[in-house]
């Protein structure tokens, strides 16, 4: 199926104009981070879809990506393990749910244990 040239979405994610009066907004806004004591986080133990490898997942964080990355870095450093941040979740390698819950409570986060 041929793309319509007058359809901006067919042109891709970028738009360029030499006109200074034109402003394009891609709809993405930086989300404001809630204070630690207003965050409702969930600590989940999982090994599904990871070839049997165990991970601890922290989800429910409301805020900017930079603040989420900073929290993920703090947790990885305190546990001494690796991990990543994907789709708004912090994934920590290994079974460290109880230790992570203690760290988050010391940082004044509300965290609850989910699952077995």
TrEMBL record:
Keywords: Initiation factor, Protein biosynthesis, Translation regulation. The keyword Nucleotide-binding does not apply. GO terms for molecular function: translation initiation factor activity. Residues 42-108 form the SUI1 domain. It comes from the Bacteria. InterPro entries: DENR/SUI1_TIF, SUI1, SUI1_arc_bac, SUI1_dom_sf. Pfam families: SUI1 (PF01253). Belongs to the SUI1 family. This is Translation initiation factor 1. The lineage of its organism: Bacteria, Pseudomonadati, Bacteroidota, Flavobacteriia, Flavobacteriales.
């Amino acid at each position: 199926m041929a793309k319509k040239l007058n359809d901006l979405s067919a042109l891709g994610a970028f738009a360029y104009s030499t006109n200074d009066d034109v402003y394009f907004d891609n709809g993405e806004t930086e989300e404001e981070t809630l204070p630690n004591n207003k965050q409702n986080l969930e600590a989940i133990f999982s090994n599904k879809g990871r070839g049997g490898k165990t991970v601890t997942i922290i989800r429910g964080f409301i805020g900017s990506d930079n603040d989420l990355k900073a929290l993920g870095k703090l947790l990885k450093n305190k546990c001494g393990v690796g991990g990543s941040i994907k789709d708004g979740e912090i994934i920590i390698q290994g079974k460290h749910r109880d230790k992570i819950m203690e760290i988050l409570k010391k940082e004044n986060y509300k965290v609850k244990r989910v699952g077995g």
